[in-house]
Design a protein that fits this description.
mainly alpha, two-stranded antiparallel sheet, 2 strands
Length: 363
């Protein structure tokens, strides 16, 4: 392992800025709803602050655990087993919004798919590092990675959480590509996954409606197109400087999920183009520092782990922003460090903690 250097301050400060901005925007976008439902305007803010505090504590702890710890078979397979058990258990939990995505315990809710993303990533980097001399052996390397991904994909799809399922498949393709697996295997996988994904979209009425709404939201402005139209109105109203913090009107029951999946639209309305660009810039800083840590990592596992974590976090951010701006069909993918939700926040901060650990050893 390379010599230990100081932690990556620009990376940490970018994450800190996103979390702090996220707390402010969670409060701004949720206070009215919190008063109506729980008679406390700070209800969602307090919950998010608790998760943020746990996230920073976890991030700090991970700086003292050398990242090769996540290459140990006992650690990798334990995390994988826990994720599989939780994903399966979620299917037997009471429905929330007609889905089985959460496990509720002691007043808190856990979304297993967020843990599953990182459990799968640790498994993939472990397998590819272990078999780096036989990366392009279809039976020995590629198919085992694809098989585990398929199990995770099916479990998340059954919740149903198609966005998380697509994220799992995508991160597998990205990690295999970064590892140097032959392009023909990746293309063959894409040719199998894309038609299957399209079939799954078209066989579910609400997914088909979302796709049609993406193509022409104004064809059904009060139905399937309502969400994206309200999102575009919010972003458009903000202009360059925004209407001012707390001054959004779209969050007042016009924009569904204003403090979760569509919080970026509230950023656009209240903080304008400047606020939106600030968020994008911070994600670009994470991408830059993450790729820098990967390029300077002292071993193949560290490089792949850093690149995979960076790709997972940044891609989710860009997908969420693209959905809000009408550039992609609506998916339930939160904006990392920003959207209300403890599972997403904690999992992504876990990823950043490991990324900071790798950066300490990067030359």
């Amino acid at each position: 392992m390379g010599r230990k250097l100081s932690s990556d301050k620009p990376l940490f400060l970018a994450v800190l800025a996103l979390v702090m901005m996220g707390l402010v925007m969670v409060f701004s976008s949720s206070a009215i709803t919190a008063v109506e439902r729980y008679h406390n305007p700070y209800y969602f803010l307090i919950k998010q602050m608790v998760w943020a505090g746990l996230g920073f504590a976890l991030m700090g702890a991970l700086l003292y655990i050398p990242y090769p710890f996540f290459r140990r078979p006992a650690v990798v397979y334990t995390l994988l087993a826990i994720a599989l058990v939780l994903l399966t258990a979620a299917l037997f939990m009471p429905t929330v919004n007609r889905t089985h995505r959460w496990i509720r315990l002691l007043g808190f809710s856990l979304q297993p798919s967020e843990l599953a993303k990182f459990a799968l990533l640790f498994f993939l980097t472990y397998q590819l590092d272990k078999k780096k001399e036989r990366l392009n052996d279809l039976k020995w390397t590629v198919l085992p990675c694809a098989a585990v991904t398929a199990v995770f994909f099916v479990l998340t799809y059954l919740e149903p959480d198609f966005g998380a399922a697509i994220t799992l498949a995508s991160i597998t393709g990205i990690v295999l590509f970064l590892a140097g697996v032959r392009l023909r295997y990746l293309l063959a996988g894409a040719l199998a996954v894309v038609p299957a994904g399209l079939f799954l979209v078209l066989r579910a009425g609400y997914r088909k409606d979302r796709l049609l709404a993406f193509l022409d939201p104004f064809a059904d402005p009060l139905g399937s197109g309502f969400q994206i139209i309200q999102s575009l109105i919010a972003v458009g109203k903000g202009g360059v400087l925004g209407g001012g913090l707390g001054e959004s009107t779209q969050k007042l029951y016009y924009l569904p999920y204003a403090y979760t999946d569509f919080i970026y639209a509230v950023v656009g309305e209240e903080l304008g183009l400047i606020g939106c660009m600030a968020v994008i810039t911070l994600f670009l800083v994470i991408m830059w520092r993450g790729m820098r840590a990967a390029a300077g990592a002292p071993d193949f596992h560290g490089a792949l782990l850093a690149a995979g974590i960076t790709a997972l976090i940044v891609s989710q951010g860009l997908i969420n922003i693209s959905v809000v701006l009408g550039l992609l069909p609506t998916k339930g993918i939160p904006l990392p460090f920003f959207s209300f939700g403890g599972s997403s926040l904690l999992a992504n901060m876990l990823g950043i903690g490991i990324l900071l650990n790798v950066s300490q050893h990067s030359g």
